[in-house]
Amino acid sequence: MTLPSRPGLDSIPAYRQGRAAPAGASKLSSNESPHPPLPSVVHAVQQRLSALNRYPRMNAPEIIGRLAERYDVDAAQVTVGAGSVELAAQLIHAVAGEGDEVIFAWRSFEAYPSLVRIAGAVPVEVPLDGDHRHDLHAMLAAITPRTRLVFVCNPNNPTGTVVGAAELERFVAAVPRDVLVVIDEAYVHFDRTDYFAGAHRGAGIELFRRFPHVAVLHTFSKAYGLAGLRIGYAIAPVDIADRQRKVAVPFGVTDLAQAAAVASLDAEAELAERVDEVVAQRERLLTVLQDAGWPAVPSEANFVWVPAGDRAVELDDLLQAGGVVARTFPGEGVRISAGSEPDIDRVAHAVAPALTAAREEAHA
Ligand SMILES: Cc1ncc(COP(=O)(O)O)c(C=O)c1O
Question: Which ranges constitute the DSSP H helices of 49-127?
C-alpha cells in the first residue's frame, strides 16, 4: 500500500530504547531501578488483576488525591500519564502548535525533539555549557515571540548535572509569563544538592507555587522502580492541566499502575533506602571511571555521563566485552546507569582490567 507521507513525519526518528542486554549481562542503558518491585507493590497490583475486564478510572482519584495532599495543591492541578514522557507530550500539545517554538538544552532527554516535532512545533536546542550544564542565559536569549514552552531537565539526562534552586528561580522569574516553564524532575530523588534537600521534594514544586507559568514533571519510573507499569504525574496551573486532560489519550494509565503508585507512596521510607543505595553505587561508578582515566562527570541522577567524544565507541566496546550494556552516543559520550553493586563491579572490571586485577592481588 502506498500512502502519501505525512508532512514532517519523515524527519522524526522513532524513539530509540536503551539497548537490551544479553542474558547474564548488566543492563545499564535505561536508568532503571536495579531493585525488583517491593512485595507490597506487587500485592497491590495483584489485587487488581481480577478486574482486568474493566477500563481504568480515567480521573485516577486515589493517586491524584494522594499527590494533591502530599504537595498541598488542588487536585485539579495534578494529572497522571503513561509515564512522564506522555505528560511531556501533553504539555507540548497543550501550548504549542504549528510553527511555535519549544526550547530545551541539548543534549538532554532524547524524546524532547521528537515530541515537539510531532506536535508540529519547532524544537530549539540550546547547547549545554562547557560543564555539561544548562546554559540558562543562552536559553533565555533564545526566547522569541513564537516560544511557548521551555523544558528544564533537572537533573539533566544524560549528563546528571543540576541547575541550583536560586539560579532556576532567577531564570523562571525572567521568562515571560506567556511561556510555560516545564521543570522535568524525573531524577530529582537522586539529587544530593540543596536543590532536593532544601525543599525535600525538589525545588520545582516551590517554583510552581510562586510563579503562574511553571509546571513540574515527576515519574514513578526511576526512584520508585515502576518503569514497566508506566505512570508519572504533572503539577501544572489549572488552565494548563485542563488542556492536558483534553489532549490526553483516554485510559492511558491502567488501574494496575494507579494502585502500584499509591502503594509506592505508602512505602516511601523503604524506597528511600533503595535510592540511597543507588546513590552510593553512582558515586562508586564515578570513581571507578575516573580512576580508569575516563572523563566521567559528577552526577546527581541515577547514571553517570562520560563525555568521551571520539572514544565513546571504544568505551562502549570495553563495557560490552565486560558484560555491561550502556547507552552510547557515538562521537559524544556514554551514559551508564547506576545499577547494583555487582553491576558496578562489572564496570570496574571492564574499564580497568589491569587495575582491578592488581587491586585484587593486593587484597589477596
Ligand atoms: C528526563 C526524563 N524525563 C522523563 C522521562 C520519562 O520517563 P517515564 O515516561 O518513564 O516517566 C525520562 C526517561 O528516561 C527522562 O530521562
Answer: 61-71, 84-95, 111-118
